[in-house]
Structure formats: structure tokens, C-alpha cells
């Protein structure tokens, strides 16, 4: 509508004035993906944040993503449209709890999914995202690995290594909503459609999938696979890009509950206000940031 078009123009003008870049995750509302300079999965967004020359980063995503951007580019102003955009899974592990687990397993190396707070990252050896988790685990020189916080992603990567993985009991409420029966029902309705899911899904759901990948990986698979329809097991915000990249294909979401409410608290109005007021800013304590940065940088070095 007209109001949105006006807001978008204002945002683009402010972006120039502020020397800002707009980054957006694939789960963000379409109106935010439309104004983004770069749309990506967690890994792609972290890389962009580390490499950009812009002075200001408007991060349309959840808090841990903005925090990683600030850690990787501490001299830049990092804004988030709404600081209440959190990730319940990231909140399932805290630094004290992780320290206690490390004390029980002194020889273990610690891998943090990027869906963690800066305080937790500071306690870890290396980060990973869903797109590089297998490579990261294979790069680790230790027989025991503590894996925080996603037990489902941890279970998935454990199939690719002989190392002992000690799982934290975290999970994503949104992906957890998909049950194996949902996939079985969808396959009965759409027998020709390959099933593509995110590794945050339950093991029994992952087992039924034809392909398991990060959001960017799901997009790539649907773009490159010669099928007219797909069953999708991830958050619905990805539909915007699926449709944009493959307008003639059909995408059936495995459950009606695949919405991450946290991702949706950001909107165009709040993005505009953030660029106008340069608030809310993401700040990370300097000592924590230094330690967390090592863990993120190790991840960025894994090929
Ligand atoms: P991706 O890294 O695959 O984009 O996933 C981020 C996320 O929060 C998944 O729920
Ligand atoms: Fe966190 Fe799940 Fe939302 Fe991703 S989809 S931000 S893991 S709650």
C-alpha cells in the first residue's frame, strides 16, 4: 500500500544519509526483505556484517544475530528494529549453566550454535550455524564435544562424526512444532514433492526428509531441483524468497504452526524509527565481546 511505499522511500533515504546497510534474515516479514541490501541465513549474515564498509548496520533479525554483527564489527553502530526480537532457544542456555557442564567435562571442546548470547559464546571454542555445523564438528581436535543449545541440530551432526557429543537440552519452539505425522500426511497429499527441512527439526522429522539444510540451503535445493512442488519444514517467512526465486513452483509448509513470533516483531515502521533515531543499539560488553569474537572468527575460518 501507499503508506508502506512512502516508508520504504524514507528508509532508503535515511540509509544513504546514515551510510547504513540493511541486513535481513529469510524469516523476516516480506516488507523488510524488500528493503534489505542483503538477505541471508545466519552464516551469510554474519559474514556480511564482518565484511561491510558501512558505518551503521540495521539488522532485521533476532537479537543474537545483531549481537554477532556487533561482536564482529565493534566499531559499527548495530541497530535492531525491535530489541524484544529474541530467540527462545538462545535463552535456553546461560553462561553459568554452561560453565557447570564444562567443569564436569574438562577435556571437551565446546561448540556454540550461533543461536546463543554473547556471554555463552564467550565460554565456547567455536561457533557454528546450521549451514556449517558438520564441517565445524569435523574440524575439532577433541574426542568429546559439548554442544549448545540445540539438541536437534546436535543429534543431526552426530551422524557425521565418531566424536562423543554431549547435548544441551535446548530446541527451537517453532521447528519443534513439526511432527513426523505432519510429514507423513503431507507426503500422502503431495507424493511427488521432495521434503526439505531445517536441521532444527526433531530427529524423526529429519529422518523422513529428502534434504536437510539451513535456510539458504533450502532455497538452493528448491531452486536447483527439478520438481514442481516441495514440502517445506522451516519457518514460513522463507516463502517470500522461495516464490521470488521459483515463481512457478509450489511450496507446501509441513505445519500451519511454522511461525517464529520473535522474528515477526520487527516491521517496516520500527526499521524506519531505528534508522531515524539510531536506537535501539546493540551493545556487548568489551571483555565478553573479545572472547566471543574468537569463537565466531574460528567458525568463519572453517572452510
Ligand atoms: P539459518 O542459519 O538456517 O538461517 O537458521 C536460523 C534460525 O534461527 C533457524 O531457526
Ligand atoms: Fe530461534 Fe527458532 Fe525463531 Fe530461529 S525460528 S529465531 S531458532 S525461535
UniProtKB/TrEMBL annotation:
It comes from the Bacteria. GO terms for biological process: 'de novo' NAD+ biosynthetic process from L-aspartate. One of its GO terms (molecular function) is quinolinate synthetase A activity. [4Fe-4S] cluster binds at residues 87, 172, 260. Keywords: 4Fe-4S, Cytoplasm, Iron, Iron-sulfur, Metal-binding, Pyridine nucleotide biosynthesis, Transferase. Gene3D superfamilies: NadA-like. The keyword Iron applies. Its cofactor is [4Fe-4S] cluster. Binds 1 [4Fe-4S] cluster per subunit. It is found in: Cytoplasm. Its EC number is 2.5.1.72. Pfam families: NadA. Iminosuccinate binds at residues 25, 42, 113-115, 130, 198-200, 215. It is an enzyme of class 2 (transferase). GO terms for cellular component: cytoplasm. Pathway: Cofactor biosynthesis; NAD(+) biosynthesis; quinolinate from iminoaspartate: step 1/1. It catalyses: iminosuccinate + dihydroxyacetone phosphate = quinolinate + phosphate + 2 H2O + H(+). Belongs to the quinolinate synthase family. Type 2 subfamily. NCBIfam families: nadA, PRK09375.1-2, PRK09375.1-4. Catalyzes the condensation of iminoaspartate with dihydroxyacetone phosphate to form quinolinate. This is Quinolinate synthase. It comes from Desulfuribacillus alkaliarsenatis. The gene is nadA.
Amino acid at each position: 500500500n501507499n503508506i508502506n511505499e512512502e516508508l520504504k522511500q524514507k528508509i532508503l533515504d535515511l540509509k544513504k544519509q546514515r551510510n547504513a546497510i540493511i541486513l535481513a534474515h529469510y524469516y523476516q516479514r516480506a516488507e523488510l526483505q524488500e528493503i534489505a541490501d542483503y538477505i541471508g541465513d545466519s552464516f551469510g549474515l554474519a559474514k556480511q556484517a564482518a565484511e561491510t564498509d558501512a558505518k551503521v548496520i540495521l539488522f532485521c533479525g533476532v537479537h543474537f544475530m545483531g549481537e554477532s554483527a556487533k561482536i564482529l564489527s565493534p566499531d559499527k553502530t548495530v541497530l535492531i528494529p525491535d530489541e524484544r526480537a529474541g530467540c527462545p532457544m538462545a535463552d535456553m542456555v546461560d553462561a553459568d549453566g554452561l560453565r557447570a557442564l564444562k567443569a564436569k567435562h574438562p577435556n571437551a571442546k565446546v561448540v556454540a550454535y550461533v543461536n546463543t548470547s554473547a556471554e555463552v559464546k564467550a565460554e565456547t571454542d567455536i561457533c557454528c550455524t546450521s549451514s556449517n555445523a558438520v564441517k565445524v564438528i569435523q574440524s575439532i581436535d577433541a574426542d568429546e564435544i559439548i554442544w549448545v543449545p540445540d539438541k536437534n541440530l546436535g543429534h543431526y551432526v552426530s551422524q557425521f562424526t565418531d566424536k562423543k557429543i554431549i547435548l544441551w537440552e535446548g530446541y527451537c519452539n517453532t521447528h519443534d512444532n513439526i511432527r513426523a505425522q505432519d510429514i507423513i500426511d503431507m507426503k500422502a497429499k503431495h507424493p511427488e514433492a521432495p521434503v526439505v527441512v531445517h536441521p532444527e527439526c526433531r530427529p524423526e522429522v529429519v529422518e523422513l526428509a529428502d534434504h536437510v539444510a539451513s535456510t539458504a540451503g533450502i532455497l538452493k535445493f528448491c531452486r536447483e531441483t527439478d520438481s514442481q512442488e516441495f514440502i517445506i519444514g522451516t519457518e514460513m517467512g522463507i516463502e517470500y524468497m522461495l516464490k521470488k526465486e521459483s515463481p512457478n513452483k509450489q511450496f507446501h509448509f509441513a505445519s500451519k504452526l511454522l511461525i517464529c513470533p520473535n522474528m515477526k516483531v520487527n516491521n517496516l515502521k520500527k526499521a524506519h524509527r531505528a534508522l531515524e533515531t539510531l536506537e535501539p543499539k546493540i551493545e556487548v560488553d568489551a571483555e565478553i565481546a573479545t572472547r566471543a569474537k574468537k569463537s565466531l572468527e574460528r567458525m568463519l575460518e572453517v572452510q
